[in-house]
């Protein structure tokens, strides 16, 4: 069964760059209306100018206590059919060296914002009996990640929460799709203070990841892992003893720790 995307009002967080921007571009000409959210108004405007679909931009910092409710207030008059919870940041380095404030801001953005947006939109979706959510988690949700401990934990939370919601919503007309990308060629790692040359080389492009996510959303798939290597990794993690997973993850990811605490800003 294919679910409609065409003609729908689709809100995408983190649309100013990377995977969110690629999702917006691929929905251009198909969505009825796009609502693009991120902090950088200029980047959102530049993207909106390129799109042929009617587009509204809502500049908003979703890592602040009031960010998600401000966004919900701004879109009260919109009838949102699809919510794409894509905005997210990482924070590289040893936890001991990190200031706690940026870590808490990351938790707010990666966990609290999707929860609040879904919770705020659910009453109208339940009244309508139809809606869809695409939550962007990560393969980091499946493995311990030295050098990005708190980030990986945010994605584990989002992943588990979203799969749980898929179960709660089964048969209600409200669909959940979780998209788990692996390393993707965006500014994400640089912004998080991570030297991506130290990562395994199997990067996907944001366009590839966006295509996989949109296709899964249309199929109504509860979970999609983007990329063959990432799917193989997921299978290996599920088959291997946890101790082996920890050892391999430590060997691959620990070199990422630079000892320098970084901020989450661009
Ligand atoms: N790249 C990867 O390797 C990878 C792998 C697995 C999962 N993911 C996930 O994919 C999602 C998108 O990542 P990406 O690679 O596309 O990263 P990206 O290129 O850095 O884009 C991140 C987006 O989030 C927005 N954003 C950041 N902080 C925000 C805030 N406080 N409030 C509102 N918006 C904010 C950014 O816009 P502004 O700066 O304008 O606010 C940008 O549009 C994230 O959830 C990430 O965890 C990425």
Q: Can you describe this structure?
A:
The structure is a single chain. With 266 residues, this protein is an alpha/beta fold. The protein has a single domain (9-256), classed as NAD(P)-binding Rossmann-like Domain (Rossmann fold, 3-Layer(aba) Sandwich). 45% of the residues lie in helices and 14% in strands. The chain contains nine helices and seven strands. The protein has helices at 18-27, 41-50, 67-74, 100-128, 149-169, 188-191, 206-219, 228-239, 242-253; strands at residues 9-13, 33-38, 55-59, 82-85, 131-136, 174-180, 223-225. A seven-stranded parallel sheet has the order 3-2-1-4-5-6-7, with helices on both faces. Strand 2, helix 2 and strand 3 (55-59) form a beta-alpha-beta unit. Helix 1 (18-27) packs across helix 7 (206-219). Bound molecules: NADP nicotinamide-adenine-dinucleotide phosphate (NAP). NADP nicotinamide-adenine-dinucleotide phosphate binds next to helix 1 and helix 6.
- Structural class call reads alpha/beta
Order of helices and strands: EHEHEHEHEHEHHEHH
Q: What value does the Rg take, in angstroms?
A: 18 Å
Classify the beta-strand content into a percent band: 5-15%
Low-confidence stretches: 259-266
User: What's the CATH class label?
Assistant: Alpha Beta
Question: What characteristic shape results from the CA principal axes?
Answer: globular
């Amino acid at each position: 069964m294919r679910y409609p995307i065409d003609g729908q009002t689709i809100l995408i967080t983190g649309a100013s760059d990377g995977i969110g921007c690629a999702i917006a571009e691929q929905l251009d000409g198909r969505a009825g209306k796009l609502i693009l959210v991120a902090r950088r108004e200029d980047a959102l405007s530049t993207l909106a100018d390129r799109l042929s679909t009617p587009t509204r931009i809502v500049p908003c910092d979703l890592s602040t206590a009031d960010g998600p409710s401000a966004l919900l207030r701004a879109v009260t008059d919109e009838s949102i059919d699809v919510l794409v919870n894509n905005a997210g940041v990482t924070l590289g380095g040893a936890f001991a060296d990190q200031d706690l404030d940026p870590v808490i801001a990351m938790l707010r953005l990666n966990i609290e914002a999707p929860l609040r947006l879904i919770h705020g939109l659910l009453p109208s979706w339940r009244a309508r009996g139809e809606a869809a959510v695409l939550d962007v988690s990560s393969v980091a949700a499946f493995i311990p990640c030295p050098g990005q401990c708190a980030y990986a934990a945010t994605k584990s939370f989002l992943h588990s929460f979203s799969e749980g919601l898929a179960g709660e919503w089964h048969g209600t007309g409200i669909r959940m799709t979780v998209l788990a990308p692996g390393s993707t060629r965006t500014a994400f790692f640089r912004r998080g203070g991570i030297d991506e040359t130290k990562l395994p080389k199997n990067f996907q492009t944001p366009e590839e990841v966006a295509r996989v996510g949109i296709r899964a959303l249309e199929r109504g798939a509860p979970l999609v892992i983007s990329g063959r290597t990432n799917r193989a990794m997921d299978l290996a993690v599920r088959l291997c003893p946890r101790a082996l997973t920890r050892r391999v993850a430590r060997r691959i990811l620990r070199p990422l720790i630079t000892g320098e605490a970084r901020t989450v800003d661009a």
